[in-house]
Amino acid sequence: MSVELMAQKAKKAAIVLSGLDAGKKNRALDLIAKKLDENKEEIFKANIQDIERSTGENLAEPLIKRLKFDEKKLEDLLDGIKSLIDMEDPIGKTLLSTELDNELELYKVSCPIGIIGIIFESRPDALVQISALCLKSGNAVLLKGGREASLTNKILYETILAATREAGIPDNWINLLESRDEVSELLKLDQYVDLIIPRGSNEFVRYIMDNSRIPVMGHADGICHCYIDEDADIERAVSIVVDSKTQYVSVCNALETLLIHEKVADTILPLLKEKFDERNVELRGCDKTRGIISCSAATEEDWKTEYLDYILSVKVVESIDQAIEHINTYGSGHTDAIVSENKANIEKFMNYVDSGNVFANCSTRFSDGFRYGFGAEVGISTNKLHARGPVGLDGLVTYKYKVVGKGHIVADYAEKRRKFTHKPIDEKFSV
Amino acid sequence: MSVELMAQKAKKAAIVLSGLDAGKKNRALDLIAKKLDENKEEIFKANIQDIERSTGENLAEPLIKRLKFDEKKLEDLLDGIKSLIDMEDPIGKTLLSTELDNELELYKVSCPIGIIGIIFESRPDALVQISALCLKSGNAVLLKGGREASLTNKILYETILAATREAGIPDNWINLLESRDEVSELLKLDQYVDLIIPRGSNEFVRYIMDNSRIPVMGHADGICHCYIDEDADIERAVSIVVDSKTQYVSVCNALETLLIHEKVADTILPLLKEKFDERNVELRGCDKTRGIISCSAATEEDWKTEYLDYILSVKVVESIDQAIEHINTYGSGHTDAIVSENKANIEKFMNYVDSGNVFANCSTRFSDGFRYGFGAEVGISTNKLHARGPVGLDGLVTYKYKVVGKGHIVADYAEKRRKFTHKPIDEKFSV
Description:
- Two copies of one chain form a homodimer.
- Chain A is globular.
- The first copy, chain A, has two domains: 235 residues, Aldehyde Dehydrogenase, Chain A, domain 1 (3-Layer(aba) Sandwich), CATH 3.40.605; 143 residues, Aldehyde Dehydrogenase, Chain A, domain 2, CATH 3.40.309.10.
- Chain A has 16 helices and 17 strands.
- In chain A, helix 3 runs antiparallel to helix 7.
- Chain A is an alpha/beta fold.
- Helix content of chain A is 43%, strand content 21%.
- The two termini of chain A are 41 Å apart.
- In chain A, the strands form four sheets. Chain A has a seven-stranded parallel β-sheet with strand order 10-9-11-8-7-12-13, sandwiched between helices. A four-stranded antiparallel β-sheet of chain A has the order 16-2-1-17, with no helix packed on it. Chain A has a four-stranded parallel β-sheet with strand order 5-4-3-6, sandwiched between helices.
- The interface between A and B is large, with 77 and 76 residues.
- Strand 16 of chain A pairs parallel with strand 13 of chain B, so a sheet runs across the interface.
């Protein structure tokens, strides 16, 4: 089947999906959990084949790790699906209701986006998470996973499909693409596909943005900053910076640049240097930093770099304003933190730093859908429109305006026979 | 000044703007209204020059009409600004608050988008409306108006600038581009500009979408449908269809295709034919339609056409499902209406028609920001993401996540020393 035909059929399924009640969607999610558990031995077997083949092809160790789908991963997924079932249905919520005139009412009601194309890398558990989020939010999906996980993805897809079929949901709501050529086809289908969520390298996300008219939700870079204010608690600052940088270095919410106020640099930098030496973190500092501790020199390029590695760039600043300006110039709008005991400075930082996630006195690593209590996430968005930061169910939903009248026509208002009342009403949508 | 330099300066102004309190923004809006009134003679004079020049250049009559800026237009604008002042500040609203753990709190807080590029055609009053909406929502703007309105736009821009300067707002928050070359430059500035709102022809909107990485909010087409159900009130149906088609034909929310259930076509079509003959509306019908009334034949192309003229395509359908499918196939996701007394059918139509505005028993012409009670609109969006339908203040706002802790680090949760509580709290953001 061509991707276009797949998308056409998915569009019909999406229309059906948009009208499903919460009970039916939750029953389908429950069946997915059940069937995943029933088929687990087969799934693990397929996964071992994927791992063996990929190891033979010299896939890098961290990618092999991500590729692994075992009992622990399955348990996490089943927990995730259970928490998703418990969540309120995001569809059909009345977001606004206004009486426009007597018996003419306006409602803003949440509804699914439609068809979502998701391109993800090695982790096969992402396929299950994303499909479950899309099902709960009533969206049809076209999924493309990494080649290295192809057997695992295939059996996961088949398991989900069998479960939703049993629940009476049209098959075409979920679709698995298998080749790269199909991705190129997908990018052209702006007539059918409403949103693409790419999860992969920066270059890959940019490539997709440049090669499709379809809106893209994704993040290009995670150049996260921590600014230690002159009024920082020193112990806290050290602990937060160390956690932000080293708790897990290869992720987008890890710290890449430390900004430190000159009044506390003398005290804090030597303490940090000691901690980072223990953890083999290379520091790259500005001139002032290098006047206090010994480290290599940071270049202009360093301020723009997402290392995803045991490297940290360090800059001493003269003021909070200079810190904010640095972040708004070099940052990527992902996650930036201030460590300070001064409330006015915290407020200033949180208002003026133009990022999706702004933190006070905690680690940048908290920037995550699970930690935020969203149950699951499809990714973290550095877009400013539609959805920003970690994206859970809310980011997979849009709205439509519903207006219900009793024969109202505009000529009556244009010719001043009637007037709008525009009165907020406290009512859910009904006809 | 190059557009890039303008955008760089606008970015700095946008950061200041994002932190302005409601009082300061409202004072600025009040000053804008005052100065527009003070300078009105000069503005009218500039407008007359624009009209005379454009008439000499044989600009089409409807465009000359739109170009006109007189006492009546000014009054409407001043009313609009007053209602905007009375509206709640859309910025700094707490949209969600969750306790993640003891003394670790997550807030989702509304904030401005940043820098918005707006390209509009002849109507100079749009410049004032859009600037006022952007100011109230804390966004900086780059404005490009039509060449035909250049003198009017210039003096309106200068008047607004003088007012906001007096209110203490940095000059660079508002910028007027004067040439087409500057638009090409603007489209490349995805580093600074967060959103482009084009108001113009379909081709123009598509051109912009294809030539910029910047997200575009606009509408490509307004192919609006009205479906007359088998359970329709006949008198209502006729009145709604006539209003939807003829109350103002050249606008995006005017009716372009009528769908009518075969069970009522025999009764209603002759009544409509009489009304439309009186109003010189050309009907283009499917075969079944032409079996009932005399009219020209509709082609496949007609179902895809936004006439913006005294032409209506008509199709007889066998069922509400066929009507919904027709709309979801040929529609543009703008505004579609059902006329029916059957609640189940109304609900079905409103759920399954995949458009930004779905109406029951009222004219498609109600699809408008003013009529919806939004005070003003920057346009009507047929995008499905971010903002859909008429876009007022809400569509010019995004959000950021703010997390406030007391030294919290992720290692404590990863190593199971602490657990998330994820408890909703009923609190506004504070540090």
